[in-house]
Amino acid sequence: MGKPKIIIIGAGLGGLSTGIYAQLNGYETVIYEKNPVPGGLAACWKRKDYLIDGGIHFLTGHKPGLNLYRVFEEVGVHKAEYVDIETYARYIDERSGIKVDISADLDKFHSDLLRLFPDDQRIINKFIKSTRGMSKTDISEFGFKEPMELMKTKDWIKEFWQNRKALKYFIGKSMKPVSEYVKKVKNPILKELFLYMFLPTVPVAFLWMVLSFVAQNQMGLLAKGSIDFAQKMEDRYLELGGKIEYKSKVTDILVEDDTAVGIKLEDSIVHNSDFVVSAIDGRTVIYDILDGVYTNEKINKIYSEWKTVDPFVSVSLGVDMEFKDEVWMTFFKSTDSVTIAEEEIDNIMIRFFNYSPHFAPKGKTVIQVDFETEWEYWFVLRDDMKEYNSVKKKLAEETIEWLEKRYPGINNNIEVIDVATPYTYWRYTLNERGAYMGFLPTSDAFTTTVEKRLPGLKNFYMAGQWSMSMGGVQPVIYSGKHVIQLLCHDEGKEFVTNNRVRRSN
Ligand SMILES: Cc1cc2nc3c(=O)[nH]c(=O)nc-3n(C[C@H](O)[C@H](O)[C@H](O)COP(=O)(O)OP(=O)(O)OC[C@H]3O[C@@H](n4cnc5c(N)ncnc54)[C@H](O)[C@@H]3O)c2cc1C
């Protein structure tokens, strides 16, 4: 008898991770991907001599020191090229002239905050103390070691015991969203700084965690862009004997007697398998492809009540100039706004790809300006291609004008202009509302398990950003691992990683 066969839909990081762990566990796998390349949202594209990175901003786990690194080795991404982040971001409030670097050096960051916002001494001291405390722990695998579905009371007790030093930072008021937390902050600029460090909906403990990774020098940038990360996973998957069929859009999941038995492609060709794993948009699979037959109250509640992350519109420029003194990411609270989707936006995020030679020829730089925006506007606009292109052109012009005031000379040195809208992200990956990270990370989402199996449907699993309460590189890689842990458990098999055998339950 041959090996059991798994069909995986989607070669994003979630699908690739599933494939890697499935191959490690003796399954035969084929991934069907609609695009000609791997990576999904972890995408880059060439414009003349410039490499535009439209994906991952930063990540944790890229070097030895945290438990997460072992998982990076398992999926092969320890071979990607990284640059450590020394400054998480620069925050500039143009109205007051205040400028703060969110530095890996917590002493410096602490004294800068106290100097600039003396009225908020108490909250600043507590914020830094918690960040510092967390940076002495390793929480990189907390809640990820095993799929939640397999965790029993004794496993939770063990998990809590092993992470007891970090746990005190994740209880009570620490799980309040940052938007609530800042109500106690007196200075409005410090308020804004906290709000835009990540997303206002995340618990404040999440900010401490992110900054604690920065302080441990455990936050990295991809020196060759997001595609390098995806390609390292693809290499690992192919080395293990996995197969990928590109330009193959799945339109149907075949079900017989409430059991997934294969898939149908856009050209009507059918492929059979023993198991099917979906690593694509959750709503499309559950409610369109499977007609909403295999759901329950919990799933319906998630898909009807949880919001998705607001998408970006991203303006990238190839500029014949160097920006050696700029940090890789700057948040502006700007005095003049840019019009996006008929709204005046004054929170503006800029990335300078000046940390590696792989994005632009010598002496030149890619600058990317990201604006959070709404989905509906772009989706409706795209019906009129002429108008859509004209809005993109106008946005690029306004962005350049805005940049020129802050970085004189840019206007005359632009060699490449590229605008990616929420529609672009949707068209490329088919993620609901162009959501680049799945569900909006809220305290509610953080404490809810999103199931990777659908009720009533056998031999079917879900991986990727819609199978976790929050997307992002780390959760998505674990989602693939969890699916194969669950599958091995359901099959009564032992789960193996890198030749180390671990019980799946
Ligand atoms: C601009 C940006 C910045 C980000 N920054 C960070 C960051 O700093 N840190 C971090 O951790 N995360 C970040 N993320 C999020 C992270 O990249 C994603 O959460 C993660 O890559 C999602 O992977 P996935 O496999 O779940 O989904 P996807 O990447 O969407 O992969 C799904 C794949 O399935 C394919 N597909 C869809 N439908 C079909 C079909 N019917 N048939 C066949 N194939 C199909 C798609 O083409 C795609 O390749 C960022 C994302 C973006 C876009």
How would you describe this structure in keywords?
505 residues, alpha+beta, FAD/NAD(P)-binding domain, 3 domains, 5-stranded parallel β-sheet, 17 helices, globular, disordered C terminus, binds flavin-adenine dinucleotide
Characterize the structure shown.
The protein is an alpha+beta fold. It has three domains: 5-42 and 71-76 and 225-307 and 439-502, FAD/NAD(P)-binding domain (3-Layer(bba) Sandwich), CATH 3.50.50.60; 87-216, no CATH class; 312-432. Helices cover 35% and strands 23% of the residues. The chain is built from 17 helices and 22 strands. It has helices at residues 13-24, 68-75, 106-116, 121-134, 153-162, 164-167, 178-181, 188-197, 204-215, 226-239, 282-289, 297-305, 375-381, 385-406, 422-429, 443-446, 473-490, and strands spanning 5-9, 28-32, 44-47, 50-53, 59-60, 82-84, 87-93, 98-103, 219-222, 243-245, 250-256, 259-265, 270-272, 275-278, 312-319, 329-340, 343-352, 365-372, 414-420, 460-462, 495-497, 500-502. The strands form six sheets. It has a seven-stranded mixed sheet, sandwiched between helices. Strands 10-2-1-14-20 form a five-stranded parallel sheet, with helices on one face. It has a three-stranded antiparallel sheet with strand order 5-9-6. Strand 7 (87-93) and strand 8 (98-103) form a beta hairpin. Helix 3 packs antiparallel against helix 4. It is globular, with a radius of gyration of 23 Å. The chain starts with a strand and ends with a strand. Mean pLDDT is 94; it is low at 499-505. Flavin-adenine dinucleotide (FAD) binds at residues 9-15, 32-35, 40-42, 54-59, 249-250, 279-280, 312, 429-431, 436-437, 464-465, 471-474, 476. Flavin-adenine dinucleotide binds next to helix 1 and helix 17.
